[in-house]
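Hi support team,

I'm filing this because I wasn't sure whether my run with 2-acetamido-2-deoxy-beta-D-glucopyranose finished correctly. The job status page said complete, but I'd like someone to confirm that the output block is well-formed before I use it downstream. Pasting the exact inputs I used:
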Amino acid sequence: MGYGRLEPSEPGGSLNANQPDDATSLPPPLSAPPPTRNKKKLIFLSVLSLALIVASAASAVILVGLRTRAGQPGPLLARKPTQAISKTCSKTLYPSLCVNSLVEFPGSLTASEQDLVHISFNMTLQHFSKALYYSAGISYLQMDPRVRSAFEDCIELLDDSVDALSRSLGSVAPTPGGANNGNINIFNREDVMTWLSSSLTNQDTCTEGFADVNGDVKNQMTEKLKDLSELVSNCLAIFAASESDDFAGIPIQNKRRLLEETDTFPRWLAKRERRLLGLPVSAIQADIIVSQDGNGTVKTIMEAIKKAPENSTRRTIIYVRAGKYEEDN
Ligand SMILES: *[C@@H]1O[C@H](CO)[C@@H](O)[C@H](O)[C@H]1NC(C)=O
Ligand SMILES: *[C@@H]1O[C@H](CO)[C@@H](O)[C@H](O)[C@H]1NC(C)=O
Ligand SMILES: *[C@@H]1O[C@H](CO)[C@@H](O)[C@H](O)[C@H]1NC(C)=O
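And here is everything the job wrote out:
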């Protein structure tokens, strides 16, 4: 459109007013105008008009560019949450995060409430994967041993969470060949709750690890792991609300109870310790072995504790062999 309007207006437009001795208005009285001059002018004019065409084309492109940008000023404004999204998110503890993260996710705007369960799982999984990818990307940074240890724990925990979320998604995603109602497998409900809860615990553990350190790595990790716990919490709420029979009425705050019931370890035990305690003895490399028969490093638990290094940057594992230890402290 810019082409058609600008080009014809050129010869009779403002250009003419500024340059009266235009090629078209070249007065006949000039009996023998040097042809070269004329030619030069023509060339000059055509160059000028070409420049104008280019300029108008460029401005058209810029206009189009601006318009498409203005057309979608951030997906949040353009994409209104559907009724299903609003309803689903109203059940969560972080409804606006829920809405904002869902509307951006492919397929959410046409999804039913039922579909939104696996879509929120998937969306959360993608956030975790991204967080893992970007967190692992800063491992080249200089870190003192304590920070390094916290950092590496977080990476491992994130990896674990990605795994747990993938399994959860696998359980709730509609099976391709399955029945149309694509329903959630009842048998997996508890597993799914446990997996989701474990990713929540992982986030806590990761945060705990950075609790008494400061600096750039901590700040960067905080930024990269932003919203992850909230997203999982929302998944738990959405999942819990997705079937009215057994899980309805269990508020999301009670998720910990489930964790306690299904875990053999007490709740205060962090993920790392659970993992360690879950290992077979043969897989554990103990630093100090307590054994009454003298086959260990030391004979009493007290000696072992004294032997453990102070302010160590790594965990000291004391393995106490079976036996009855009666010690006076
Ligand atoms: C999860 O989302 C991704 C990206 O939108 C998609 O390719 C994938 O099929 C989804 N997975 C499931 C199980 O829905
Ligand atoms: C302690 O070590 C000795 C020799 O290495 C071995 O004969 C004995 O059975 C060990 N005792 C136990 C309880 O393992
Ligand atoms: C361990 O740390 C504490 C407090 O930071 C300090 O008082 C103590 O001297 C340290 N011990 C050793 C063996 O470095």
